[in-house]
Amino acid sequence: MTSQPPPEATSEGDEFAFLAALSVEELECIAASDDMLQQQLHRAPSVRSAHAFLAELHQGNRELAEKTLAKEAELARIRTRIAGMQAAYWETRRELATLDERRLDAAKRFSANALLKQLRSLATQADIASDDRWEQFLASATAAPSDSAVVEAFVNDYTPLRSEYHLRTAHADRLSLGDESWRP
After folding, report:
1. Are residues 21 and 97 in the same domain?
2. pTM assigned to the model
């Protein structure tokens, strides 16, 4: 739109100068008829300017509406892409939350306290197993006191159990003191 709003008339005489050229009878005829009055008023420069401005304004609005409608399909595609991206974003957030839960679970399972409990439990199991083996040996030794095969089998079974007990206990003691140098 290149036109400006209609300029204001400088004086009434300039605005309706075309009426001065009319006779009294023509003026009375115009005053008596609404249609003729409207027709004569539309000859005024400011009225013509206003009509031209209004026509340009309507044309500009029409062009703007056409441009807006032309962009509607692109806007729909962009909205669809955004919806897809939002869905991917929320799916990624869910996956990250799941991974974070797994990380926290792993951190709990491998924390110093959890490892200490596990080491102590394994040491207790090894101690119980070695005590059970000792009880079995004592029961079999009373039945056959001089059987070297029984003694050798006992030593072969009992020694690894006691070694495991002592290793687990030593690791638990070091861990409880904050020394983690034994960890691989």
Report:
1. yes
2. 0.43
